[in-house]
């Protein structure tokens, strides 16, 4: 299964915005929908897809029949930056989870997150497992026991083989949700409490990095914390653009975030590596991600209010879940078995995964999300 980083699918108009590729809450009544955020999420998902299809080696090279460098001699160097779409997802996540948790009781927050995460995720687990079990598919499926554990979203800490390579980001999201729920949602969100949460998490993450203790790293996620915290800071700016503390939180998070991105994704030019990302290029992509969310928060992209962006936002999460592994199968079928050119295969694979995402949204999310949310919000009857 794919490791993190370089070593490392009828959409209702009211479909909720998502963070990272993860579905998020509806905007509060009376507040305009930030449709540009929907578009940005899809852009980030397409960046990750470009990375998985043409910016790295591994199983995708088997699907193409050769290295993506051979298939995309020039574009592969640009596709390699697509992995930074994950960092952009995390900034968006910090923004929209702050919006979700503000003024919401714990039961409602939990119901919203679970009902949006699980339907497409469960469907993707079943679908990928079933496809990989077909005799004509050359990629190995995980064991039945491991596939069942994957339904819990806890496969990574349990050391179980992953059905979806991209699910490592969901594990980071779950830890962020837990921290935010315990420190902000449970006691009640206020500006002072959110600022304190950001400050303490930033300092604690730095201490965790210095201490080099696996348990601290697991809980505090120093590599990803600045992106979540930066998104929270941008949300505070969205609430009050004159909030200098919020600008400070965002700025410090950007400074630390670009450091981790360069540290994890840069290496000296080396022909033994698939690709070479410049430090300037990495910083530029991280900066563009922060800047795009900030421009949306400040209202500068409010004119991007087209309804199709809502559709794009609704497709992002299911697309993100299914695009990698099922993309391998699609690329191999179109390119090696049907003989389609590389760029035609690339475009048709993206289109096929978006169509599958639409099916998942239409027939899974629209039906199961309200059922799960209403069930989890329902208070249990008092026992007599």
Topology record:
Layout: E1 18-19, E2 22-23, H1 35-54, H2 59-64, H3 68-71, H4 75-79, H5 85-101, H6 106-132, H7 144-150, H8 168-185, H9 191-211, H10 214-220, H11 225-239, H12 244-265, H13 279-297, H14 307-337, H15 342-377
Describe the structure.
- With 384 residues, the chain is mainly alpha-helical.
- Helix content is 66%, strand content 1%.
- It has 15 helices and two strands.
- It has helices spanning 35-54, 59-64, 68-71, 75-79, 85-101, 106-132, 144-150, 168-185, 191-211, 214-220, 225-239, 244-265, 279-297, 307-337, 342-377, and strands at residues 18-19, 22-23.
- It has a two-stranded antiparallel sheet.
- A hairpin with a 2-residue loop joins strand 1 (18-19) and strand 2.
- Helix 1 runs parallel beside helix 14, helix 11 (225-239) packs parallel to helix 13 and helix 14 packs across helix 15 (342-377).
- The longest helix has 36 residues, at 342-377.
- It starts with 17 loop residues before the first strand and ends in a 7-residue tail after the last helix.
- 48% of the residues are buried.
């Amino acid at each position: 299964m794919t490791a993190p980083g370089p070593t490392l699918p009828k959409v209702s108009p009211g479909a909720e915005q998502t963070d990272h590729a993860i579905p998020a809450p509806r905007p509060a009544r009376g507040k305009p929908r930030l449709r540009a955020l929907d578009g940005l999420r899809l852009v980030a998902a397409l960046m990750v897809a470009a990375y998985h299809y043409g910016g790295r080696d591994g199983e995708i090279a088997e699907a193409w029949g050769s290295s993506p460098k051979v298939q995309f001699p020039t574009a592969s160097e640009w596709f390699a930056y697509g992995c930074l779409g994950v960092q952009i997802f995390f900034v968006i996540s910090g923004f929209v989870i702050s919006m979700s948790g503000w003024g919401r009781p714990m039961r409602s927050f939990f119901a919203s997150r679970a009902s949006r995460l699980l339907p497409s995720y469960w469907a993707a687990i079943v679908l990928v497992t079933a496809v990989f079990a077909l005799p004509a598919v050359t990629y190995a499926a995980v064991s039945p026991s491991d596939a069942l554990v994957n339904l819990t979203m806890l496969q990574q800490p349990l050391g179980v083989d992953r059905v979806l390579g991209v699910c490592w980001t969901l594990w980071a999201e779950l830890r962020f949700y837990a921290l935010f729920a315990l420190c902000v949602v449970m006691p009640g969100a206020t500006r002072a409490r959110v600022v304190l949460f950001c400050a303490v998490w930033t300092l604690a993450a730095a201490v965790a990095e210095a201490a080099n203790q696996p348990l601290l790293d697991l809980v505090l996620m120093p590599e990803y914390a600045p992106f979540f915290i930066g998104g929270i800071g941008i949300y505070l700016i969205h609430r009050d653009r004159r909030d200098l503390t919020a600008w400070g939180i965002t700025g410090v998070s950007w400074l630390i975030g670009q450091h981790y991105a360069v540290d994890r994704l840069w290496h000296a030019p080396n022909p033994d590596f698939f690709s070479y990302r410049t430090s300037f290029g990495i910083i530029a992509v991280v900066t563009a991600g922060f800047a795009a969310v900030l421009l949306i928060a400040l209202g500068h992209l409010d004119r991007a209010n087209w309804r199709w962006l809502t559709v794009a936002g609704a497709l992002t999460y299911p697309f993100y879940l299914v695009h990698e592994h099922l993309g391998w199968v699609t690329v191999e079928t179109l390119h090696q078995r049907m003989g389609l050119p590389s760029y035609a295969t690339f475009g048709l694979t993206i289109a096929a995964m978006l169509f599958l995402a639409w099916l998942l949204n239409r027939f899974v999310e629209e039906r199961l999300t309200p059922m799960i949310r209403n069930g989890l919000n329902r208070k249990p009857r008092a026992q007599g």
